Amino acid sequence: MDTAVKQSPARADAKEPSGAYRNLVMATIGFALTFWAWNLIAPMSADYKDRLGLSSFQQSLLVAVPVLVGSLGRIPVGALTDKYGARLMFPLTSALTVVPVLLLIPAKDSYGAMLAVGFLLGLGGTTFAIGVPLVNSWFRPADRGLALGVFGMGMGGVALSGYFTPRIAKHGDNLPFLVVAGALVVYAALAAVQLNDRPGRQVPTDSLAQRLGAAGRLRVTWELSALYAIGFGGIVAFGVYLPTYLKTWYELSPTDAGTKAAGFALVTVVFRPIGGWLSDRVHPALVTSAALGFAALTAIVQAFDPELVPGGTIALLCMAAGLGTASGSVFALVSQVTPQAKVGSVTGIVGAMGGLGGFVPPLAMGAIYSAKDSYSIGFMLLSDLALAGCVYAYGRMRTIQRDA
Predict the structure, then answer these.
(1) Cα 290 from chain centroid?
(2) Are residues 153 and 277 in contact, defined by beta-carbon separation less than 8 angstroms?
(3) Which of 12, 135, 290, 345 is at 20 to 30 A from 229, Cα to Cα?
């Protein structure tokens, strides 16, 4: 099969329709802001633990609730986006996210209230399933990979939250929530004016349950879900667990561990559009296979516990590059093998599986370390999963034709 993209001269010279880049920028900003809101609890979890006298499990549950709800919430939100469009869903979801952000202020002295608000805060994590079908509709197939990769950089909102939220809190306990709520209000107002669905957008006529059922019956939905659970799930897992790993194994201070974890997150954000850009030039399954294979090799290197400088740092950053590239190329593949009217529904399911895939590895790493006093087995398991994804992407997914 010829994996190169063949374009006619007319197609090569074609331009994106008016408004494509404006919608891409607005969607990326909204994605970053809502992801910042989605991650507001995690950077402050140590303070909540001390204030409320929480156990380690209670602290972990407090952090996990918004992420789990946000991941699962992408499934119905993606289907609703297919029906009602991103012009309605993006500003509406952003505005509704303001409510739990502000509720964090009165809830901070009650663990039960924090769990309830964390459940509502999961809404902020659903916007991924709104932006993908929007961006996908505005860009030609030859350019969708890069465009979706740029949109995917909005996941850097999690890193922004991790860096800025505790620093803003030093100037006032409630200030981070007020700042993020204000930014969301401004964005929702701008999005209501600046965001547009592509003219001629296909609007499904069947019910939400029928659309989700149809997306769930597509074999490719679950194949893409598995690949995304490895790529993006690995990113989420390291975002959650890397500071703990660095503090426990390499005995870094919390500040140093957090800084290095932020560097890992930054590399994944940078390489996501690179994965999309490469997918515009060769088949995205080949990009996914190569990226996961590279991540598998670097996980094996890290399993041998190299010194942090330079070996461990290089291995972890290379792993971040591989996982970031794979997360970008998988959604380039989604855009090419999914009917436009079902992109939101499929995106919701694939995005949910990616988010949920990030919570098994930290639990496994912690359990293995408790039992064996070593992280090596955990890294070898990660390498096995990445290698399996590498082989499957090359052997099966590269045979799926691009759309026209």
Answers:
(1) 20
(2) no
(3) 135
With b for 16 or more beta-carbon neighbours within 10 A and e for fewer, the 141-170 pattern comes to bbbbbbbbbbbbbbbbbbbbbbbebeebbe
63-121 tens-digit pLDDT: 778 878 888 888 888 888 888 888 999 999 999 999 999 999 998 888 899 999 999 99
Long-range contacts from 62-66, C-beta under 8 angstroms, 24+ separation: 62/111, 62/114, 62/115, 62/118, 63/240, 64/359, 65/115, 65/118, 65/119, 65/122, 66/38, 66/39, 66/41, 66/118, 66/119, 66/121, 66/122, 66/124, 66/125
Q: Is residue 142 classed as helix, strand or coil in its secondary structure?
A: helix
Rg (CA), the chain: 20
Q: What is the DSSP letter of 302?
A: H
DSSP string, 361-400: HHHHHHHHHHHHS-SHHHHHHHHHHHHHHHHHHHHTGGGS
DSSP notation for 17-41: PTTHHHHHHHHHHHHHHHHHHHTSS
